[in-house]
């Protein structure tokens, strides 16, 4: 792919605010053919679409769709509308996610566990399944799938059990998809799996980064992800301590690793989590 997304159709989930909106702004700035915004917050989505339209150059279409990706059936319906009204995207950035900062036994099956797994793990699969066939058959044009996972999917952490499970599932599927496409001759479709530590979007307000792992700014993360996407990089872990922790976890005996993680503050990082100030501590968080 070229150094920009000029001329491409870009679909972003969780696009009304946070990093999703930053990805959309980047696509607009680079002259994308269409920027397709998916979000479940109709008001925030309308505001974001209006602001993006003001910045867009002539020829860039801003297409907002109110979609609750926790409703897996709604994904197919929204995808059909995208194909009909805009055209199949060349780039899909599955950015939307939710988190619960609770001990596992405090989770409710219907309000916590099920939506977390749907939004974080299943929805990216359903979305990719809708648009992947076009990407695979359009061999003359490169395509990208970007799945925003988390460092939590690579390491266990108290008060993040369901979130960690959802992101571990996302990582496993995303990188397996990458291998399948490469091995079956569809190398024009590149899959990038992103595993960041805590990002200061509001979604993790109150969380404390472990030693040597400060909270990253959304702007920094978006810049790194964007470059990795264009380059077709398979895996992006940030900051560097995420990859180090993953390596140590895989080599050290578990009791030793537990002591190391505790000493570095990994296991205490969610103790003071509150999420967005406008929401209750156990409310849905979308970015």
Beta strands, count: 7
Count of spatially separate domains? 1
Order of strands in the sheet with most strands: 3-2-1-4-5-6-7
CATH topology: Rossmann fold
CATH superfamily: NAD(P)-binding Rossmann-like Domain
Decide which structural class fits the backbone: alpha/beta
Task: Sum this structure up briefly.
The chain has 287 residues and is of the alpha/beta class. Helix content is 45%, strand content 14%. Belongs to the short-chain dehydrogenases/reductases (SDR) family.
Topology:
Layout: E1 9-13, H1 18-29, E2 34-39, H2 42-55, E3 61-66, H3 72-85, E4 91-94, H4 109-137, E5 143-148, H5 161-183, E6 189-196, H6 218-231, E7 235-238, H7 240-251, H8 254-263
Parallel strand pairs: 1-2, 1-4, 2-3, 4-5, 5-6, 6-7
Helix pairs in contact: 1-6, 3-4, 4-5
Structure description:
By secondary structure, this protein is an alpha/beta fold. It has one domain (9-268): NAD(P)-binding Rossmann-like Domain (Rossmann fold), CATH 3.40.50.720. Helix content is 45%, strand content 14%. It contains eight helices and seven strands. It has helices spanning 18-29, 42-55, 72-85, 109-137, 161-183, 218-231, 240-251, 254-263, and strands at residues 9-13, 34-39, 61-66, 91-94, 143-148, 189-196, 235-238. It has a seven-stranded parallel sheet with strand order 3-2-1-4-5-6-7, sandwiched between helices. Strand 1 (9-13), helix 1 and strand 2 (34-39) form a beta-alpha-beta unit. Helix 1 crosses helix 6 (218-231), helix 3 (72-85) runs parallel beside helix 4 and helix 4 (109-137) packs parallel to helix 5 (161-183). The longest helix has 29 residues, at 109-137. It starts with 8 loop residues before the first strand and ends in a 24-residue tail after the last helix. Residues 276-287 have low confidence and may be disordered.
């Amino acid at each position: 792919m070229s150094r920009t997304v000029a001329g491409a159709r870009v679909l972003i989930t969780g696009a009304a605010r946070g990093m999703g909106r930053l990805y959309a702004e980047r696509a607009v700035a680079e002259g994308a053919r269409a920027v397709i915004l998916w979000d479940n917050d109709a008001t925030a989505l309308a505001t974001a679409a209006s602001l993006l339209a003001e910045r867009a150059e002539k020829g860039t279409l801003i297409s907002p769709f109110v979609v609750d990706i926790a409703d897996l059936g709604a994904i197919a319906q929204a995808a059909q509308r995208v194909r009909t009204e805009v055209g199949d995207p060349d780039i899909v950035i599955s950015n939307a996610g939710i988190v619960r900062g609770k001990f596992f036994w405090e989770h409710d099956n219907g309000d916590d566990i099920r939506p977390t797994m749907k939004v974080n793990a299943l929805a990216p699969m359903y979305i990719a399944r809708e648009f992947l066939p076009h990407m695979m058959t359009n061999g003359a044009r490169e395509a990208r799938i970007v799945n925003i996972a988390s460092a939590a999917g690579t390491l266990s952490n108290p008060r993040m059990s369901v979130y960690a499970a959802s992101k571990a599932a996302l990582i496993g599927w995303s990188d397996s998809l990458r291998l399948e496409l490469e091995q079956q001759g569809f190398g024009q479709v590149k899959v990038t799996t992103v595993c960041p530590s805590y990002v200061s979007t509001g979604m993790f307000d109150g969380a404390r980064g472990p030693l040597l792992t400060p909270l990253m700014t959304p702007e920094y993360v978006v810049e790194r992800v964007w470059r990795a996407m264009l380059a077709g990089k398979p895996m992006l872990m940030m900051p560097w301590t995420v990859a180090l922790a993953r390596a140590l976890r895989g080599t050290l005996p578990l009791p030793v690793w537990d002591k190391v993680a505790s000493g570095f503050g990994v296991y205490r990082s969610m103790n003071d989590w509150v999420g967005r100030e406008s929401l209750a501590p156990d409310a849905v968080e979308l970015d």
